[in-house]
Amino acid sequence: MPLPDxxxxxxxxxxxxxLADMAIDAAWYSGDRRKLxxxxxxxxxxxADGQRRxxxxxxxxxxxxxxxxxxxxxxxxxARKSAALLFSEPPRLTxxxxxxxxxxxxxxxxxxxxxxxxxxxVSAALGGVYLVTAWDAEIGPRPLLTHVHADCALPEFxxxxxxxxxxxxxxxxxxxxxxxRLERHERGRxxxxxxxxxxxxxxxxxxxxxxxxxxxxxxxxxxxxAIETGIPLLTAAYMPNIGPNRTFRGSPLGRSDLQGPARDLxxxxxxxxxxxxxxxxxxxxxLIVPKGYLRDRGPGMGAGFDxxxxxxxxxxxxxxxxxxxxxxxxxxxxxxxHKSTADALVRQIVEAGGYSPQTFGLDGGPAxxxxxxxxxxxxxxxxxxxxxxxxAPALADIVEAMLQLDRALGFSTLTPERPTVLFGPxxxxxxxxxxxxxxxxxxxxxISTETKVRRVHPDWDDDAVxxxxxxxxxETGQTVPDLSPIPHLI
Length: 490
Fold this sequence. Notes:
alpha+beta, 490 residues, Phage portal protein
């Protein structure tokens, strides 16, 4: 299937509902109050309980006054925690060939680890993310790993597998005119297109040379008008956050951590904090003074009260008469009511995403071992393991494509293979606990020296493990002598 035809509706009707839903998640993730107000106007202005959303109220603040609605960045915090659980320690990518492993480590270094962390955060907020491999001779002789947000892509699936995807980017918007760049990835080829249209219409194609970002790819186009990658794989992979998609059942797209009731809970949390701040504003101490205490400031300037004046003369009115003295007025601040409501809402938001309250600092306690942490954060660990099963295939797909692209472009002569993806533990076990566990297993004669070394050093390869085992056996006298007979003594 080629790039879209001229004058096609945009976004395509097939994905319009999902993209509109992502726009709401994107607004919550950004924390921009103007975006939140925009996406919740109209049909989305009421919560599921029938209450009007805080961000669905179209009343603008009076001129000269600031916006009184407060946003708590809980959605962004949930996405950040999700990414940290998944990729704070980058996964181990392994292949069988030693030389290929060295090249793989070079391609997926610290830069790739940082990119995966960023991609996972966006994935948690929008329901998924696309990992893309590209190349640029000016950057270096190697394939590059990058990512594209889910709300800028139109994927095509067959039997749950992505067969093609079209990415788009708004390059310029002037009034009602929009210039878009489209990039379509198919097996073995990448197409580029430049369209001049409107907000809801793709418009007509224009030459790629009309914009600097697309002019750079013109020299790379083949006879078919596309870039031939030279590999039979897609140069893009879809990494869903988690499934299934509850709002759009049957959709191959992943589910956002904010999907469902979490949005209403976030809106209620913002309303609670806005109410709390309103209490603080209204509770500022105010003085009610008799008119006799006011001093004329001159023609047209009104009258005022000097709160720094120390000496005052008494008024010629009975002291028992109402309004004879200065009265201080200050409202109470409902601290406990607001705090308990906010804490309960945060807990519900966290649990709706599949996480344990302890992961977000709730129900904290004293320092604990790794085993105790995993027990306390059981829900978070279960959610993490589920997400690794969605992330691992996408990582293997894109890294395999990188290795094949590395060879096809002449950057390497090594034979590529599909890597194995291994996620480490979310919580590092403390050395004392590890030593105690290994000691008990050794006393029970239920563990070998090699297994103990691998447990302590999970990142070592087979050669390093074998060398360490030999050293331990030599130092502890466990080395078995060679009992074969000496030939000249037979």
